[in-house]
Amino acid sequence: MFKELARSSGVERLGLFIRLLASLANAPSGDCTTLSRKVFSLPAGCSEPRGINLAIRHITANFRDEIGLEDILRLTGMSKATFSRQFKKHYGKTFSEFLSEIRLQAAVAS
Questions:
Q1: Rounded to an integer, what distance in angstroms lies between the CA atom of residue 40 and that of residue 19?
Q2: Dihedral of CA 23/28/34/40: which sign?
Q3: How far is Cα 22 from Cα 29, in angstroms, rounded to an integer?
Q4: How many Å apart are CA 37 and CA 44, to the nearest integer?
Q5: Nearest to 67, CA basis, from 57, 53, 81, 78
Q6: What b/e string do you get for 7-28 counting C-beta neighbours within 10 Å, with b at 16 or more?
Q7: pTM of the prediction?
Q8: Are 15 and 60 in contact (CB under 8 A)?
Q9: Any alpha helices (H) in the chain, and if so which ranges?
Q10: pLDDT given for residue 43 in this prediction
Q11: Which fold has domain 48-109?
Q12: Is 50 left (phi over 0), alpha (psi -120 to 50) or beta?
């Protein structure tokens, strides 16, 4: 899976990562070793605008719940037009396409 992850990009990479996490979550406890207790955070030099980063974090943390565009707009403080334009620019698809793909990838992984 790690080799596939390195060769993939975009939503495909995210889907593989979710499958990898699912495999780890389902592994017997005797097979698991904690490698780090450091909390994940996006790099300071990340090229996406802050609002898009907030949206991605929210989507990936809550994709199993009902997430509406209005919720994301409130979270990011962006207008619908600005958010849609920026999201498409950075991820190559609309918010709903991205959310659907994440949900499909998670369903396939489980």
A1: 18
A2: positive
A3: 14
A4: 20
A5: 57
A6: eeeebeebbbbbbeeeeeeeee
A7: 0.55
A8: no
A9: 2-7, 10-25, 50-62, 69-76, 80-91, 95-109
A10: 47
A11: Arc Repressor Mutant, subunit A (1.10.10)
A12: alpha
Q: What is the distance between the alpha carbons of residues 69 and 71, in angstroms, rounded to a whole number?
A: 5
Buried b or exposed e, range 72-98, using 16+ CB within 10 angstroms: bbebbebeeeebeebbeeebeeebeeb
pLDDT the model gives residue 26: 86
What are the phi and psi torsion angles at 48 (to 5°)?
-75, 145
Whole-angstrom Cα distance, residue 36 to residue 98? 29
Structural domain spans, the chain: 48-109
The structure tokens listed for 71 are 């919720």
pLDDT digits (tens, 9 = 90+) for 27-84: 887 877 776 665 545 445 445 578 898 999 999 999 999 999 999 999 999 999 999 9
